[in-house]
Design brief:
MetI-like fold
Length: 281
């Protein structure tokens, strides 16, 4: 085996002066990294001080949590099992209707936001920024707004889930459309297809598995979100949970939490298998 000739000391010194990064971090790099680490530690320390996260407070909180866990056992429905089941079904309905409504509304918006479909930046960029604004608002805030607008109940929850997901779906659909292979579209255009026909037969078949996979994932996520927004009056099992917590019925609250855990686990398992089948794995 032939050995590589050693680098001459003079050449190495020249390279070290001209390209210091070739031989590892320079002292300036180490100083910059140390300064960045100190800044991160300072910010973390200030944050812990600002929220009063002292060891004494943490220990006291853990003690109280153990005290509450004693009241949660054994979990019980409190004689209202049917009412809790109906509330859980209402939560599933909020998640399902909100997800489907958002997907239907986001389907055309996704095409309008895709660079390879709408090439006019003057129209596409304002749409993308508007979607960013919608995505920047949490579903819980939307729930508070719609509860004030349309009143308590599941309709406010459906609106909150749907509007929040329009921003998410539209962005994901647009990115999926932009990442499609140009070959089928070019072939369809060369064979005389119109612009709409090219989208229908060359682009839609490529993105549809991705779109369906996103819809299934967000339905699973929205089941959890619908449980949370119920706490602010948007219907579903979350409202029942908040009532139990306010009344200190911790055994019934534990039963509701277990219902949610089992439901989410089942939906997660089914959704995972469906997504794998859709994308062909």
């Amino acid at each position: 085996m032939t050995r590589r000739p050693a680098l001459a000391p003079e050449l190495r010194d020249d390279l070290l002066r001209e390209r210091p990064r070739l031989f590892g971090p320079t002292p300036g790099d180490w100083a910059l990294r140390a300064a960045a680490g100190l800044v991160i530690l300072a910010v973390l320390g200030f944050s812990l001080w600002r929220v009063d996260a002292t060891p004494e407070r943490i220990a006291e909180g853990i003690g109280r949590l153990g005290f509450l866990l004693q009241f949660m056992w054994p979990p019980t429905a409190g004689g209202e099992l049917w009412r809790l089941v109906m509330a859980l079904l209402e939560t599933l309905a909020i998640a399902l209707i909100g997800t489907v409504a958002a997907a239907v509304a986001s389907y055309p918006i996704g095409f309008l936001g895709a660079r390879n479909i709408l090439r006019m930046r003057l129209l596409r960029l304002p749409l993308r920024r508007a979607l960013d604004v919608i995505r920047g608002v949490d579903v819980l805030i939307f729930a508070l707004i719609f509860v004030a607008a349309v009143g308590l109940g599941p309709f406010a929850g459906i609106l909150a889930v749907a509007v929040n997901d329009v921003g998410n779906f539209s962005k994901l659909f647009a990115e999926a459309i932009e990442n499609t292979d140009d070959g089928p579209a070019e072939g369809a255009a060369a064979s005389g297809c119109s612009r709409l026909e090219t989208i229908r037969f060359a682009i839609v078949p490529q993105v549809m598995p991705v779109i369906l996979s996103h819809i299934l994932y967000f339905f699973e996520r929205n089941v959890r979100a619908a449980s949370i927004i119920g706490i602010v009056g948007a219907g579903g099992i979350g409202f029942e949970l908040s009532e139990r917590i306010r009344g200190n019925y911790w055994d019934e609250a534990a039963f509701i939490i277990l219902m949610l855990l089992v439901t989410v686990m089942v939906i997660d398992r089914i959704s995972h298998r469906l997504r794998l089948r859709i994308i062909g794995r």
